[in-house]
Every structure is written in C-alpha cells, then in structure tokens.
Amino acid sequence: MPYITPEECLSSFSPTLPKELRNPELLVTIPAPTCKACSSKTGDQTDEITQKILLAFPHISKGGYVKAVKQGSPEHNCPLRVGIMLSGGPAPGGHNVLSGLFDGLKKIHPDSILLGFIEGGQGIINQEYVAISSEFLHSYRNSGGFNIISTGRQSIVTKDNKKKCLTAAQNLDLDGLVIVGGDGSNTATAILANYFAENNSKTTVVGVPKTIDGDIHSKYLELPFGFDSATKFYSNLIGNISRDALSCQAHYHFIKLMGRSASHIALECAFQTHPNMVLIGEEIAAKNLSLKAIVSEICTVIAERASIGKYYGVVLIPEGIIEFIPEIKLLIEEINSLPTSENIENLLSEKSQRLLQSFPKKVQHQLLSDRDAHGNVYVSKISVDSFLIYLVEKELRENFKNVPFNAVSHFLGYEGRCCLPSAFDNDYGYALGVGAAVLVKNKNNGYLSCIDNLMLTPENRNFRGVPISGMLTLLKNASGETIPMIKKHLVDISSPAFQKLELYRKIWSLEDSYRFPGPLQIQYPPETSSDTFCPFTLLINKLDDNYTTKKPALNHRCIEIPD
After folding, report:
1. Contact in structure between 430 and 26 (CB atoms under 8 Å)
2. Dihedrals φ, ψ of 165, to 5°?
3. Parallel, antiparallel, or unpaired for β 482-486 and 472-476?
4. Which residues are known catalytic residues?
5. pLDDT of amino acid 369
6. In what helix (H) or strand (E) does residue 198 lie, and over which residues does it extend?
C-alpha cells in the first residue's frame, strides 16, 4: 500500500455542507420560528438588563434568529467585497472557515473578492491585508492553525479604533466584515456592527464562534469550532500518558488542561480517556469545596488504590480551577484590590496571610507579584498541577502513613490550539464560513453564523443566523466597569453529561479503565458514522429531552461510555 503524505490526506478531504447551505447564491434569510420556551433571553437575564442592552445596541437589537431558504436568483447577485479577521487564540478549523467563506462568496458571484486582514484587529486598523485567491488558499485547506493571515488581540472597539475600522471599510469598499473569535471578539463584533450601522456604513459585520475552551453557547449555538479537535488531540496524549502509567506502575500523572474560565475540556477529555480523577471547577464552586477537601479527596483515592497494590494513576485538572476554590478566590480578590508593593503580603487579612503561607514559595510569588495589564493576579500562569502535587504530598505525609507517592506534572495547552483539525471541525468550520457569506449577502448585520444539530451527519445539520445582541448581558470587565458582554458558558453540573460522569467516577478511580483514543483522523473512521463522532458531552446532553429545549432528531438510545 503506497504511503500517503499528510499533505495528500489534507488535500483529498472534501468538507460536507448541510443541505440547506449548498446553494448560497440562491439563499435568502428569513425569520426562524421560535417559541417562548426557546427564547434567546437567558434564564438569569432580567427585563432591566434586556432594556439596557437594547439601548446600547439600538441599530442591531431588533432582529430575531434567521434561517436560509431558496428564493433568489443567481443572475440578480452582485459581486461582494468582504474582509475577514481572525481574533484571539487559534483554533483548529479556522482555515476551513476562511475556505468556506471564500467558496461561498465565489458561488454567490464569481467576481466576489475576499481580503484577509493581517494579524487580526491590527490589520484592519492599519489596512494591511492580503487578497485571497484559490491558489493562495489551496495549501491551507483542512489544515490547523491561523497562519494563513495570522491572528491578534488588538482591541477594535476603542473610540479611536472604531473610527479606523470604519475608515478601512469605506476605503476598501467592503460589503462585509467577518470576525472569527470567542466571547470577547464577538462582543466586539456586536459593538462594531452597531457603530457601522449608526454611521450609515454599507458594511455588514458578522461573527463566527471560535474557541477550544467550548465556553460560548446559546440557542442554535451548541459549540464553537475548535473544541472537538483540541479535546481529541489532548485525549490522544492523555491516553499515551495513561498507557505509560499502566506500563511503569510507578507514577501519578497530574495533567493540567486548557480551560481558563470553564471546565468543558476537562469534562470531555474525561469521557474520552477515563482518568482516575477529574476535577471540575464549576462543581467545586457549586459545592463550596475547600482546598483541604479537594486535597483530601485526591489523597483518599491514592490511598484506596494503594490498598489494592496500585501506586499510579491519572488526574485531570482544568487550568482555571484555582479561581473556583472559595478561599483562594477570596484571596485573589483581596490581592487584586491592593496596589502592587513590596509589602503587599502584610496588607492582607490575617486569614489570607495564613492561607498564603501554606502555599509553596513559587505560588506565593506568582500570586503576589505576577499581575496582568489591569493589575490583576495572572491566574493562568500559576502551575496548579505542581501546586496540587505539593499539597497532596504534604497531606499524604502527615495523615496517610506509608502510602507511596511519586508524581509527574504535565500541561497540555498550546499544543492543541493549532493541531490537525478533526473531520468534525473541518466540516463544521467550512459550513460556518459559507453561512457567514450568506449572512453578508443578506445584510444580516450583527449576526453570528451558527450550525445547529451538530450530532447529526454534516449534510443533515442546520444553518441559523443568531443575533449577537441576544447573547449579551451586563458584566464587570477586568477594570471593574459594567459593560455589555457575552457571558461565558460554564459546565452545568445538573446536565446529563455531568450526571453521567458522577456515575462512572468511582469505577474509574479504582479500576484501570483507561481509554486510548489514538491520533486525530482527518477522515471519519470507516466503521463510525459522524453522528457518533461529535464530542461525547454534546451527544449526551442533546439526547436528553428534559435538558434540551427541543427534541433531538436522533432516536433515543442509552449512551454508554465507550470502552
């Protein structure tokens, strides 16, 4: 059998579009039917907040969800000039968003032009871009990363930068601007869309949902692209580490995973790999678990495994877990309220000082001295894996006599942001790009391109345009101001997926039930239909009628955690 290079494999993969997006040149958007129970208004969003958001976004707030139907004629389409910027951290599938947008625009009219802004917001502010051609795009299709035009974190919504973005759109005669990003970037999409409309710009601003953290969610937006690839990639590495633990039987592996504000990655990787323990930040916060209780629970599992002759194991930890632990959260808030100084430790309350002194010196220094641009503790830099190993080691020494413990720490982070995209994310990203072209064509300003029913095969999924204003609420930013923002979607501990985890935890803690997913595949495995190849957490939640707002399109069946 001849060797097939990765490049040949990438070029041979042809993404599958949902049926309703296959003729973008004929599609018009119309209001999507909705019901009271499926309202975009979040459960904790009051009428007062809704009114404030309506006042803040008067030019984009009134539209509802839209869907696409065939009503147009290709002869009536005009060429479109569209710009695209990639914002924030990379996510697998981004190149296919760009590919789908390019192909969609060319189908709408062959003379349409796509401009890629270099380094995200910096590119549009400085009007630095590259004209995307079929030849230029060819080698990037189905590949990971954002290196086709690079990405950045430059704010585009300061007073000065909004003007520069408007000037760029006018100078380049843009019919549309597509912004690919997470919660912050798509909040900026709504702000810029409203600003453009306020200034009578013809440019339609639309968003595409991206983040490997999986923390953007609303009706019709089940998952951002990138989450599936990153969790499958991490799960392959966790599987390898688990195999090493099983082979050597000498170490506990504490694995820190991406997930600054939510534990979705840790939860999904747990279903993929069956570790002995997984910590979920949202559970810790909901149950008000103290640091001592968490450490004691880990030590109990280690002692129970030791009693049956097992001195090894795997523990998964989301990187942002430290902010979910009640007493550490209060400590961080207290530190953030104080100015940086050499004697900051002496300014803390007596209780906070005692807690801080129980930490290793490195963590003490990170909490007291490492501040971000807003003067807040740089939580993501804290080595929570090593921190927990230190505390577990201390607790085992003092209260669990004669329990051997050797630990290794790992951080699986940036490795997953630019990995080879899964078949799921290649299909998904491509469909989101074509959907963005349809939104621009139909002048749906301030909308997010979304694909619904992701547990179905790609051709049976549905396209929806989601008004970003309906996803906004009022939150405090890092500077303490209350502003409209998309709220991060956290793990719901009442969800079917979390409840399923609860059922398996005790089994996984003592038995070596490790699962070894293997490397990412660009194609769906021949024996596996794509409806069972989506993230497990999504599938489990979608198949529960009591949890979802509408009945899933698949027949119900008991979801068993894979062997």
Report:
1. no
2. -65, -40
3. antiparallel
4. 213
5. 84
6. helix 183-198
Measured on CA atoms in the order 288, 293, 299, 302, is the torsion positive or negative? negative
In sequence order, the 6+-apart residues with CB closer than 8 A to the CB of 389 are 254, 407, 409
What integer pLDDT is reported at residue 339 of this predicted model?
80
Tell me the pairing of strands 176-181 and 204-209.
Answer: parallel
Residues 6 or more apart whose Cβ sits within 8 Å of residue 395: 295, 296, 299
Measured between alpha carbons, how far is 489 from 450 in angstroms, rounded to an integer? 16
Tokens 């064509």 found at: 441
The strand pair at 407-412 and 447-452 is best described as: unpaired
Tokens 């995209």 -> residue? 421
- Cα angle: 118, vertex 123, 128; to 5 degrees: 80
What gap in Å lies between CA 431 and CA 99, rounded to an integer? 9
pTM for this model (two decimals): 0.92
Of 108-112, 161-165, 340-344, give the lowest mean pLDDT range.
Answer: 340-344
Please provide residue 237's backbone torsions phi and psi, each rounded to the nearest 5 degrees: -70, -40
Q: Which residue has the tokens 């820190």?
A: 256
| The pLDDT of residue 382 | 86
Taking the C-alpha atoms of residue 140 and residue 152, their distance in angstroms, rounded to an integer, is: 19
Q: What is the 3-state secondary structure (H, E, C) of 439-454?
A: HHHCCCCCEEEEEECC
